Amino acid sequence: MSPGHTDDTDNCRVVADVLSRIGDKWTVYVVRLLSDGSMRFNEIKRAIPAISQRMLTLTLRGLERDGLVTRTIYPTIPPRVDYELTDLGRTLIATLMALGDWALANRANVEKARAAFDAKEKKSKAKIGLVPLAWSRRQVAP
Questions:
Q1: Contact predicate 58/52, CB 8 Å
Q2: Which letter, b or e, does each residue of 51-88 get, where b requires 16 or more Cβ atoms within 10 Å of its Cβ?
Q3: pTM of the entire predicted model
Q4: Could you tell me if 10 and 75 are in contact, meaning their C-beta atoms sit under 8 angstroms apart?
Q5: Of all helices (H) and strands (E), which one includes residue 85?
Q6: For residue 29, which of 92, 72, 109 has the smallest C-alpha distance?
Q7: pLDDT category, 142, cuts 50, 70, 90?
Q8: Half-sphere exposure of 92 (CA within 13 A, CB side)
Q9: β-pairing, 39-40 with 69-74?
């Protein structure tokens, strides 16, 4: 990319912005759940016990803002609110499933690469005398 060439930079910003929504921790879970059809807030919350109510609210609002989820309020007592993927949101399902399949199929290879990298880094640091702080402390007699 040459200096002053903004098309690639602008495209990268757009992609990064969209991927920050799609790639956040909870979006994948929520989109996967809603791929089976509309759900109420508490149904989603029960299906993802590790998510806080606040984080689920923020995730759903973000998905709604980005046009991936619709929120329908029914005037009942108590009010009923359903969340459902939009047509745009449904286009994500195949992509997320493919990414999940790739992650599962390549998990062992990624773990092997990480272990090799970590071993190489440890060996490299030891070679140049870098040791963890706990190893370098001297015991001083009182």
A1: no
A2: beeeebeebbebbeebebbbeeeeeeeeeeebbebbee
A3: 0.71
A4: no
A5: strand 80-85
A6: 92
A7: very low
A8: 24
A9: unpaired
Instruction: Give the distance, in angstroms, between the CA of residue 42 and the centroid of all CA atoms in the same chain.
Output: 21
31-70 residue pLDDT tens: 999 999 999 999 999 999 999 999 999 999 999 999 999 9
Single-letter code of the amino acid located at 121: E
* Structural domains in the chain plus CATH codes: 6-128 (1.10.10.10)
Q: Do residues 71 and 133 make contact, with C-beta atoms less than 8 angstroms apart?
A: no
d(CA 57, CA 63): 10
Contacts of 22 (CB under 8 A, 6+ apart): 28, 92, 96
What confidence tens digit (pLDDT) does each residue in 85-130 have? 999 999 999 998 898 899 999 999 999 999 999 998 888 877 766 6
DSSP, collapsed to helix, strand or coil, labels residue 82 as strand
Angle at 32 between CA 40 and CA 105, to 5 degrees: 160
Task: Show the tokens assigned to 108.
Answer: 């062992």
- In 10 A of CB 133, how many CB atoms? 6
Instruction: Tell me the residue type at 19.
Output: L
